[in-house]
Specification:
Blueprint: E1 4-6, H1 8-37, H2 46-70, E2 72-74, E3 89-94, E4 100-106, E5 117-119, H3 123-128, E6 136-141, E7 144-154
Parallel strand pairs: 1-2, 4-5
Antiparallel strand pairs: 3-4, 3-7, 6-7
GO biological process, one term: regulation of DNA-templated transcription elongation
Family: Belongs to the GreA/GreB family.
Domain Transcription elongation factor GreA/GreB C-terminal: 81-155
């Protein structure tokens, strides 16, 4: 099995979600199923069927998170430096629009573009790997080719 790169923050967030599912959500849904079962005929009991469906989702998510966390390769960006690699917080400027963007390159299960967390497998992250401050990068995106200049690289 292939290891899954992850930052300490991403690992902690997935661990917290798993703990919540096991200690809060799972017991709550078991209680909801028991309550719905007491309402009588299970064939026409919408509350029971809804609770069982939610239980299936919760159990599936628990198994998924356990699998991800068992394969996690936690990489602490604070111990890194130099050219852009996993965990780097990179500030870029779009060479066409002069718009500045800051992203941190993270694993696929913690990526969230709205929060500035860029999936390591994304076209932009793949183009940035190995680049230094001042380098120019061309990235093929679904919207066409974009050119960026690397303004700064931080590891925190």
């Amino acid at each position: 099995m292939e290891k899954i790169p992850m930052t300490p923050a991403g690992n902690a967030a997935l661990g917290a979600e798993l703990k919540n599912l096991k200690s809060v959500e799972r017991p709550a849904i078991i209680e909801a199923i028991a309550t719905a079962r007491e309402l009588g005929d299970l064939k026409e009991n919408a509350e029971y069927h809804s609770a069982r469906e939610k239980q299936g989702f919760i159990e599936g998510r628990i198994k998924e998170l356990e699998g991800i966390l068992s394969l996690a390769d936690v990489i602490d960006p604070a111990k890194l430096n130099g050219a852009i690699k996993f965990g780097a917080k990179v500030t870029l400027v779009d060479e066409d629009t002069d718009e500045e963007k800051t992203w941190q390159i993270v694993g696929e299960y913690e990526a969230n573009i709205e929060n500035g967390l860029l999936n390591i497998m994304s076209p932009i992250a793949r183009a940035l790997i190995g680049k230094e401050e001042g380098d120019s990068v061309e990235v093929r995106t679904p919207g066409g080719v974009r050119s960026y200049e690397v303004l700064s690289i931080e590891y925190a």
